[in-house]
Amino acid sequence: MTTAEFSLAGIVLLPLLASAVAVLLGSRVRAVLGILTALLICGLCTAVLIQTAAGGITELALGGYEAPLGIRLRADGLSALFLCLSAVVGTVVSAHAAILPASAGHPGFWPLWLGCWSGLNAVFVSGDLFNTYVGLELVGLTAVALVALGGRDSWMPALRYLFVAVLGSLLFLVGVGLILAAAGTLDMEQAAQQLAETPEAHAAAVFALCLMSVGLVLKLALMPMHRWLIPAHAGAPGAVSPLLSALVIKAALFVILRLWLWVMPLDATTEAETGLAEGLSTALTALAWTLGGFGALAVILGSVMALRQDRLKPLVAYSTVAQVGYWFLFLPLLLDPEAGALEGQPGTTLAEDAVLSGALSGSVALALGHGVAKAGLFLAAGLLKELWGTDEIESLRGAGRRHPLLILSMGLCAVGLIGLPISLGFTGKWHLATSAVAAEHWWIIAVLVLGTLLSAGYLLRGIAPLLLQDAKDPQDQEHDAAQDADASAESPRRQRLAEVPAFVLGLLTVLTGFLAVGIDALMGVGAPW
Amino acid sequence: MSGLLPEDVSLAVPDIALGLALLTAAGCALIPRSRLALAAGFLSLGALTALVWLRLDSVDVGLAEAGLGGGILGALLVWLAIRSPHSPAPDSAETISTTQPTSGTRRTSRPILNPRTLLGCAAGAVLGGGLCLVWFQVLHALPAWSEPLEEQMETTGVTHEITGVLLAFRAYDTLLESAVLMLAGVAVMALGRDGGLHQLSLPQPEVPSALRWLVRLCAPVLLLAGLWLLFAGSSDSGGAFQSGAVLCSLLILLRTAHALPSRERTEPWIRPLLIGGVVVFILAGLVGPLLADPLLSEAWLSWQPQWATAAVLSVEILLTIGIAVGLFLMYLTLENPEGVQ
Amino acid sequence: MTDLIPSAVLPWIPLVMVVLSLAAAVAIFPMGERRVRLRSWVNLSAAVAKVLLVVLLVPAVVAEGTRPEFSVPFLPLGEGESIDLVLRVDPLALFFAGLSALLWLLTTIYAIGYLERGSDRSRFFGFFSLCVTATVGISFSGNLITFLVFYEILTLVTYPLVAHWGDEKSLRAARMYMRYALSGGVAVLIGVIWLTMYAGPVDFAEEGGAEGVAALAAESPGVAVTIFVLLVGGMGVKAALVPLHSWLPSAMVAPAPVSALLHAVAVVKAGVFGIVRVIDDVFGIEVAEELGVLGPLLAVACFTVLYGSYQAMRQTELKKRLAFSTVSQVSYVVVGVSMVSALATAGGVVHLVHQGIMKITLFFCAGLFAEVIRAHTIGELRGAGRRMPWTSAAFTVGALGMIGLPPTAGFVTKWQLGLGALDAGQGWVVLVLLGSSVLNAAYFLPVVWMLWFAEPEGESGEAPDAGASDEAPQPEGEPQREKEPGALVVPAVITAVATLAVGLGAALSFAPLQVAEAIAEAVFR
Amino acid sequence: MTELLFALSFLLPAGAAAAIACAGLLSPSTAHRVRRRAGLFAPSAVLPAGLLALSGEAELELPWLMLGSTAAVDALGRPLLMIAVLLYGAALSSITWLKLRDAERGSGALSAWLLVCFCGNIGTYLAADLVSFYLAFAVMSFAAVGLVIHYRDAAARRASRIYLFLSVFSETLILAAVVLLGSALLAPSEAVDPEFDDGGAPDAQESLLLEHVPAAVMDSPHTGLILGLLLVGFGVKAGTVPLHVWLPLAHPAAPPAASAVLSGAMVKAGLVGWLRFLPLGEDGDAGARDAVEIAAWALVAAALTGAFLAVLVGVLQKDPKVVLAYSTISQMGFIAALVGVGLLVPELAALTAGAAVAYAVHHGLAKGALFLGVPVVKHYGHGRTGVLVLLGMAGAGAAVAGAPFTSGAFGKYVSKEAVEGVTVLGVGLEDILPWVATGSTLLLLRFGWVMWQAERAPRRRADGELLSWLAVCAAGIAVPWLIGAQWMPEEELPAEPPTWEASVLWDAAWPILAGLALGGAVWALAARGLLPDWASRADGTVIAPGDLIVAEESLAVRAASGTVRGVEAAHRGLEDRSRSAAEALLSAGRRVRSWATRAETRLSAWETSGLVLLMVLAATALMWWWG
């Protein structure tokens, strides 16, 4: 067992251990433990990342039992990327929660969050369908509990979230059962192989994919099924919303990507001779188009709804709904046999599969960029709410004077969310758009344009009023500020310090823009083509 | 139809009787307007269902059914019946199931045949029916692990296959599942007043002495059943989850009968008990690689045959306790959702 | 001359120049409001260093033809290839960078004086430096992606500057600006994406455009035209080509140094600079000519020239008048580059610098008038010439330059453009230029008149000096001279002098006109 | 040495002007002192230019300046340079070499403007290339505004506004011509001229020289256009009808010193422009020739109209300086007619050009003396000095009228010789032109009459005003002869120099005598009250100074307002259209938003969300089912 392999399980189990231990500790010590665990996770994640970046897929058969009997953990490029996301965002948000305990809502935050983190990592490294389900359950339950930490008002949203999470998991579980029945194994790799070899099992597999997609999409809050997300994410404590938006829904996204690209015999659909039956292929295409359509709907209507919000956190939550849409736009591309329309043309230097891989890495880059940026934005919004006692945009006018760093970080995060250079959001949009152009899917371009403009609109609407100068004269303001400082329990120093994590995320939003090439290379490790 | 009936009809008589009894019990569980009667009806339904499973040669399912359906649900229903013995209000179910009903959905009276209710029922039916249909359509391939399962049972330190799967081959899943339960307990403690134990310090409604007597009678039996389920786990069907559930019902009954210690005495030990299982599980999983030679050559969660049984056993005991405590904590919180915080 | 900069260092210089102002911004942001001296020091030293670097680069790049280049992989293109962020210094880049470096220095001085008692100064100067970073980035961009990146960054970092005062009006203007600029940016993005997909990654090619684009234009002209329209249309937003110009006048609410920077160096210029790059270095002027896109562009640009002047005439507010004048003047550049003639191209390119110098003078002065005598409308400028002679003189020079009178920079442009128009066989453009001259005179001369020749309102009293002559009518009282803050007036005077100097020394080597001619010759080689 | 002179010619005046302007920086008292000193120095600042004129023909190349500049003193520019020096020197000294008490208020500013004008003015004479000429012309035109507006009263404002308007107009036209010419000059040299082929890049400086311009006009495909632009553009400055309207407004409004240079030197810049740019004596293809002929006839017609009509209007004026202004218009008409003839008949071109210059020289000095004399008469026109003043004024007047033995007679003689043989409407031009002298005589009589009646404001001592006027008078006598004899090139003069034999004297005298007779008749009629009232009480109300300006102004205003209204309407319409489009777009957006909000509100209920999920599931299942 190499370090990477050790890390693969350690990244799941050690946070879990920490979570359990944290239950026994006092609230201060919990924060320290949380930070230590975060650092540990970063270390373990680095080990996995190094291995993956070297081009190797990390695999670990737990207990020494090989699949199909045992459970295999598996980390390829996709896993490594999401692991890194969770490590980075998790660490920064943990730091925030440690600096400003009020933002965590309750000391119970720490065991729950560490458990959630462990669940996230479990999903990202899982090579087994049922294990994925268990991981999703772990994430879902802890996420619900974390939402509920926001106080009485967030219990109802939490309950709704619980229902959604359970329902989604159930649908997923049924799908897992179907695949188990069809392929006879729970291991993803083996199942994929099995499915590719047995065309008669395809019907079941496709149906399983349908069910699982719907279940996961429910957890992911794709447009018509998104309503639970708004109160849940908006009502959660300041340190929780970023985690939910940046990481928790990414778990479902990760699984969807795994299913569509790694488990399903989609290679067969593009090559007609060994492929799915005609009908199934149509069904799958229809499903992809449905999800892509939902995605487009989400991008546009979610943004429109975000434009109508008067409070910061719901605005950011709707922005999440809108951003979720981007991640589904590539699905129709995936199944379009004409996807490489431009590949064969003279004058272009497109490589084989460049369109699909471009679309995939575009979507992943969008998701990663969203993770970092949204975490920063939510963190800042939560902090503002914490400091000002409200997140109504109207009453936050002029907040920029007192918290310039915070507004700056919000601005940086907005850059990432709008998809302006330099940020991963830009990279993602670039990839997606280039793939769309190459495949001549112009509607994706239209959606991207509209989404970009609308997102700029709502983010500007949310952030710009904070830049307003108060009408009051400066002396009054200072007086007020002093009063505010007295009123809030935390010391001003601590408040200043609490702005740093958000700023770090803002910076990361911009700096990660330079990593596009690296991300693309990582995506190539263990890619389905 | 002919395939469903055995050749010799007389052999089917007990089954038919059982079925009829089941239907009667179901009727008893639905029709009466007294909560106590309903609870009794449900308890008998649970018992009969367990019998049905036994008749179908599914001992493990039967035991689980007895433990969960009979134990926990029974205990819950008894508790409900005691708290408000009158006939249920139309929306009482909702009051129980939701932690905080919104004022908008709450009305003083509602027609029974609410279109929403109908819609919900229809949806449920369609969903259930659809899933069944699907299940039957695709049910043919068998799990591919039967052979390797038998081959590798040696190394697990347990003899029953399901336990082997649970604690050796898929120990990771088990671990995560128990972590789910543990974290549910943690969540309840975080959300509830006084670390979720507030209910323990509240005054209890009086219970009829007959019931108290019944509880005293049942408690040892349930404890025994729980322990049996636990220890049978290594060689027969059974295991931590079932056992934990049964033990939790024991705790509930004890609480009903005012037999539990006060909050102050409970608080110090409840947290360690809750997490003990998971912690030990992970540590045990780490022991393998740490003791291996060379270091870390073994994978996570692998135990050497020489101490596998001991490890599995201790993990299971602790998990059982943790699960029982976790479930009990949840019960405590849900007991009176209005007063948790 | 290479001894000035060792060749090993040369490739790093573009990066250093970008990082220089970035570092200034990073250093300025956390500074306390009251650390005026330190902030000014950082600001000015960075600005001076930048000017020096440009000066060092000029001989190497223009005379010796070296092209320092720095690149870092940015976007993957599959198969291990990637589109790079490229910073390359060619004469056009240096031309624009030189303008921005010089005017940054002056504007910084001006801004330090202007915001002496303002609030949020660290924020202001931080974004100010970022703005220049983006501008330098734009000028050194070696390909469309790099250009796009800095172009968008520029949009972002100017937003806080436009919104600096933080009142509703500023925010509204800033929002409008953002809306326009982002839409334009998206159009450019799509154009770039499309182009990259069809023609591969496109580097700016000094001599006649990129090969891939030429191939594309030959193969599918429709696509090439669409891409051209997307690119130029997107950049036209920043360049304030007519139907896309509305943001510019409303962005006038920004502080005067910002307006100056916006109009003379950064935003508007970035737009036209981009158009120059697209026509000359991406498509290549011959290819563009064959595609038939230049004619319509020329028409739009000419219309913009006239329309901007017409609108300027309708404004009574000085800054608004200047803003519309910018709309008009900046299009000269587009007019120049969209005619197929080396003379015209040189005229257009040289106007990049000329307009910058002249317009920044005017804005400096407008800011001074607003600050010192609270004059915002033309009417309020009555008799300001006596009260603020330096400012008024500088303004007059700028205005005459705008009209295109010799020996100002504006004349050189008009001359060059007129020759170019005739050379390209587009004689009617001369008519447009003259019409614009007349209109410019029509809206600038009244201002000059107001400054010098109109009687200040409510002024009376006896002249203190010189006994009244029997012939002279009763003399008006000599109005009190106002104190013109040095930090504000010196940059204005410097740019005014530069306006004259650039025109007078147009034939000197390394004068803007000469460099522009070299650039144009390369385009037509 | 010549380089130094060239440089000093421009730099000294410019420096003095700058010193006066910059003095404003100092404290008021110091500023006053500095201005005073600079003003005292100002007249001497024109000296280098004078030296330059005296030192003969020279050339200076400044390749770094503008687009490569060349300055030269040539036969055409030299005489004009000389009179410019004289006039400006006199004007400057007349306003500054006074006792402080007598000085005009703000004479510092006046001196500065005069100096700047001087730079521009001699620039137009010295510039040898296109761009420098345009530069100098523009500097002069716009600096003159400072002269006209000097008094800042209503009349001055109106005059300067109209002057400014016309200047912008003329500058624009000239710019157009200059650009067209520049293009024509640069283009062929690149392609055709073999000289430049081996030398690499064509030498822009060389090709932009003014000496190539006339040929380029003929070769250009736009000969007609360029000619039109040049005639109108320079015609504004030269006071050609109907573009003369600024003259009668500007001259009375400006201080006398300024009027002197305006009338004496500046209007000559237009003449120089014509002489330098028009294809005098060039031969070209038939089309170009036709265009030239049309232009020439137009010029001659306008010139003659101006020469005579100005008299009619002028005699009805009351302000002496207005009368002088009309005299200038009339005289410039004379000169323009010469140019027109030169344009018309290539063979006569050299002669007419020489004649025009000679006439311009004489007219410049004489008219300058008259203008400068206006305040002199006022201040010194009594007592002992009165005789001197009377003599001087009479002499200058006689010169303007072209009386025998005056410089005017020389100018007229030269001109008459030059236009020999050209007929207008069947009448020989040489027969028409003398009548201009009659008109001039009439105008001068009127001037004398008006002056005679004007108030006197005696001053005691002779100072700069008187002395400089005397100097100009003296120069008016000496210089034209000197120039005619020494500086004019051979081919530009008539075959024989004038010999004062009887016929020549008669030729010179009869128009004046006719004028005197006419004047006497009018006086006699007026004395008997036989003249209609409007004529006898002529006070400038019958025909206001600037005659056509009223019509032109109202025409311009009407045209402008019409255009503005039209454009405004179009603009408004477009704005409305776009606003309604935007409105429609916005309302569509609003509808989408409200729809989305409603949908969202629905979805916020659990049941709806559940239903949606079920529908999605059902749809998925159906897809699979039918797929």
From TrEMBL, chain A:
Pfam families assigned: Proton_antipo_M
InterPro entries reported for this sequence: CPA3_Na-H_Antiporter_D, ND/Mrp_TM
UniProt KW Methyltransferase keyword: no
Main location: membrane
TM regions (residue ranges): 6-25, 32-57, 77-100, 130-149, 161-183, 203-222, 243-263, 283-303, 315-335, 355-384, 405-422, 442-460, 502-523
Its membrane topology: Multi-pass membrane protein
Record's protein name: NADH:quinone oxidoreductase/Mrp antiporter transmembrane domain-containing protein
Organism, as annotated: Nesterenkonia cremea
UniProtKB/TrEMBL annotation, chain B:
InterPro entries named among the record's database cross-references: CPA3_antiporter_subunitB (IPR050622), MnhB (IPR007182), MrpA_C/MbhD (IPR025383)
Domain of life (superkingdom): Bacteria
Subcellular localization(s) per the UniProt record: Cell membrane
Main location (coarse class): membrane
Species lineage: Bacteria, Bacillati, Actinomycetota, Actinomycetes, Micrococcales
Name of this protein: DUF4040 domain-containing protein
Residues in MrpA C-terminal/MbhD domain copies: 21-84
Cellular component GO terms held in the UniProt record: plasma membrane
Keywords of this entry: Cell membrane, Membrane, Transmembrane, Transmembrane helix
Domain Na+/H+ antiporter MnhB subunit-related protein: 211-325
Regions of compositional bias (Polar residues) in chain numbering: 94-106
Residue ranges of the region described as Disordered: 87-111
Organism: Nesterenkonia cremea
Similarity comment: Belongs to the CPA3 antiporters (TC 2.A.63) subunit B family.
Pfam family, one: MbhD
Membrane topology according to the record: Multi-pass membrane protein
Spans traversing the lipid bilayer: 12-31, 36-56, 62-82, 117-138, 175-192, 213-233, 239-257, 269-291, 311-334
Automatic annotation (TrEMBL), chain D:
A GO molecular function held by the record: oxidoreductase activity
UniProt key word Membrane: yes
Subcellular location: Cell membrane; Membrane
Listed InterPro entries: ComplexI-like_HydComp, ND/Mrp_TM
GO CC entries: plasma membrane
Topology of the protein relative to the lipid bilayer: Multi-pass membrane protein
Membrane-spanning ranges: 6-26, 38-56, 76-98, 110-127, 133-151, 163-187, 225-247, 254-274, 294-316, 323-345, 351-374, 386-405, 432-454, 466-488, 508-527, 603-626
Domain (NADH:quinone oxidoreductase/Mrp antiporter transmembrane): residue spans on this chain: 127-380
Keyword terms, alphabetized: Cell membrane, Membrane, Oxidoreductase, Transmembrane, Transmembrane helix
Protein name as it appears in the record: NADH:quinone oxidoreductase/Mrp antiporter transmembrane domain-containing protein
The keyword Kinase is annotated on this UniProt entry: no
